[in-house]
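Continuing the series of single-chain predictions for the mutant panel. This is the parent chain; the variants come on the following pages.
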Amino acid sequence: MAQPDAPQRTDAAAPFNQPSADLILRTADLVDFRVHSQILAQASPFFASMLALPQPPASAKSSDGDAGNPVVPVSEDSTTLELLLRLVYPIPKLHTQLDDPEKMVPALRAATKYDMELPTEILSGWLTAIIPKSPLQVWAAACRTGLEVVARRAAEALKKTWTRPDKLETLALMNELGDMSGISAGDYFRLKRYLMSENGSATESLKLLSPGQPPTPRLLRGASQFSTEIPDIDVECSSSRGGRTKLFGAHKSVLASHSSVWKARLANLRMQHMSTDSESSGPILPQLDFDEDSDTLAALLRVCYTGELGLPADIESLGQLLLAARKYDMPHVTTCARLAWDDAASRNPLEAYFVAINHGLRDYAEAVARKVLAKQTAHVYTSVMERSSALAYHRMLVYYDASCTMIRDRALQAIAKLPENIDYYNAYRPTYDARAVKTGWKGAIEGKTFGSPEDIKHVLKKMVQPKYDTPKIEGYVGAVLHCVLTVQDETEQELNKIHINLG
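Parent structure:
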């Protein structure tokens, strides 16, 4: 069968095809840009440092280049690299500036990567110039490239025209950004807080862009530690993630009893070990290799040997543990970790939601979304948002708003069923009018955010007043009691029909 032709290299257009060039930059799409190292070194400290290193003799240089010129592969495509080089070369610039923020993002990222100050300055100016026409798109580009000043100017322009729909947490305008790639949930949160703030002075010092992704939390109980006092260890579990190999001694029988996947791997390992045993000069323990980091592997082993006592305490580590337990078919570990997860998620539901999303635990994310609703924590901040996607946050807010709106509507429907034609006298309210009470409660409900059907019941209970002096109030009290007894279950049924969109 004929093999497909290998991709062919092509030469860039002028002025990046001159024979006087002494260096070739080869792009990801195999376009060769012949450049002058002196110009590149002046424009980029990154390339200046690289070119200052001792170079191989001409005879040892790549035969791909012209006259033995060295070839430097770069990860950018030809469109991005050409724009970047045109901005630093002493040649006429583009006749018209770009007006699409998305097309500037790759070049800005490359300029930052190669420490090129001039392209960053020019492209930032182009972005600022199109803020009046596309403020949201410019803000998104600034988030993706770390341009705080540009992001603030774009946010200021957005705030002049943006109005918040009553009681909603979602920024509906974010739908214009599609999958919101390259934008963190933290960026979304800060823009939302900036737009919703009514105190201008409070937002003057507010940074709009992510402060950088925080390090992933480590296990809090004996990080990367596992050992057993049970004698006769007969297998080593190995983790090499992070560049360092860590070995944990264990017992095949324990591992096989907790995981069908490990049991099968140990059987294969036994056969391999038997074939090499005769060649070794001394006893060597068979080694079981794992993709997980040493913290997660140590936690898996601890739970296998000590049950819930070996569980980590933080949500991030519990998420990693649940993912690994699912991968290796470990029901006992999953049960222990799930109980600890549920407890931690009840205390910090929004953090648990993002951790579940980041680890692909969709069922856990959907379950914890109800906890975010019940605790009304969609408006709070957690550091895991800096390494979570804006789209995941947006979907949570859409679910949160839809659920809260439905619950509030059910409360208003319950109030509407109460009678209005009761005028009576009592010792505490000489001119009590049920219609006025209904109007007051309706206003209170419209201004309240409900996190669960039970919240409605608590509100309605307050409407039943003691020591009334007229039997006419009995109908009113009966109607309220009916709402108290039925509205929670009815609302719960409606809430179960609302599902978060996890993609």
